[in-house]
Amino acid sequence: MKRTLPISGSRARLHDARVTGPQKKPEWLKVKVRHGENFLELRRLMREHNLHTVCEESGPCPNIYECWEQRTATFLILGNVCTRRCTFCDVITGKPGGIVDRDEPERVAKAVAAVGLEYAVVTGVARDDVRADQGASIWAETIRAIRRENPACGVEVLTPDFRADASAIRIVCDATPDVFAHNLETVRRIHGRVRKGFSYDNSLAMLRLIKEIRPEQTTKAGLILGMGETDDEVRSSLRDLRDVRVDLVTLGQYLSPSRAHPAVDRYVTPDTFDELGAYGRSLGFRNVTSGPLVRSSYHAKEQGACGATS
Question: Which domains are assigned to the chain?
Answer without folding.
Answer: 29-309 (3.20.20.70)
